[in-house]
Amino acid sequence: MQPAFLSVVTSEAPVIKPTATSTGRRTTLANWIASADNPLTARVYVNRVWAQYFDRGIVETVSDFGKAGTKPSNPELLDYLASNFVKNGWSVKNLHREILLSSVYRQSSDPREEVLKADVDNRLLGVFPRKRLEAEEVRDSLLAASGKLEEKFGGPAVFPPIPSALTPGESVFDGNRLWTVSADPKDHNRRSVYVFVRRSVPYPLLDVFNAPNPQLVHSKREVTTSPLQALSLFNSDVVFSWSQSLAGRVLREAGNNESAQIDRLYQLLYARNPDKQEKASLLTFLDTQEKLIRDKDTNGTFALNVPKDAKVQNPVRAAAFVDLVHTAVNANEFIYRF
User: Fold this and answer.
1) What is the pLDDT averaged over residues 6-11?
2) CA Rg, the chain, in Å?
3) Which helix (H) or strand (E) holds 50?
4) Structural domain boundaries in the chain
5) CA–CA separation, 318 and 148 (whole Å)
6) For the whole prediction, is pTM greater than 0.90?
7) Which DSSP state fits 130?
């Protein structure tokens, strides 16, 4: 049996050029995989990128382009993206830019009756499909909005704090405890890609938002909606601490004007300004929450959760603003792309 390419993909015969230190077979295969004449590589890659943005690939079975897989919903679009990808020197940045600047990505996710009748599964993307952020994106977005995200690149994995109830006692692995929190506090706020992956102790905030199981091969992540996700965002001490930092950032950047504070909060979390009704509701929330906190603090023993790294003139009002920020962080608009 001589080396050759898959006959179901191409009839091209490999031209193998041995060297003094190699048979040249693997180099020939690698060159063919990345060749402009290979009909498969570019299509598979652009389809996976498309699926990341729209939750469904042009070929829905992103890991199966064979007869057992589904047919492309728009073969012309798949060919166009793949050919442009190759023409642009396999530039991933250009591919992302082309998709993000397209009208299909920039359209609204508001449902339309005529689209529902013509395409009940929205396979042709008549409206933008609402898509929840992936687990790492949820955590990193919280850190980025709060101003706590550490931009350091590279290095070994980190161990952020986890709830004490999940700390695995004195169990050891290679002489170390299964989850020893990183000594440097800055490591606690590194990007989620650097969080250590351990099968027996998954990082809770990522695990609850469907971070992939490292014991299984995944071509597409599961997306579930459960009460535990909302409870994790609402009750997590870590998330509340980030909300305090976000509140402090808003106060530093927007000053003492509460209308400007709400505008800045919406810009950081939702990339837009609030409308008049939303702003009025939030100001009413502030008044109500301030009264509740004052009622609890009648004897001066109630601990106030004030914004971090910000000067406050009225601690009770500032604590109410932290609660407002924490409420905004828990909104669907923050963890979904509409």
Assistant:
1) 81
2) 25
3) helix 41-54
4) 132-232, 236-337
5) 20
6) no
7) P
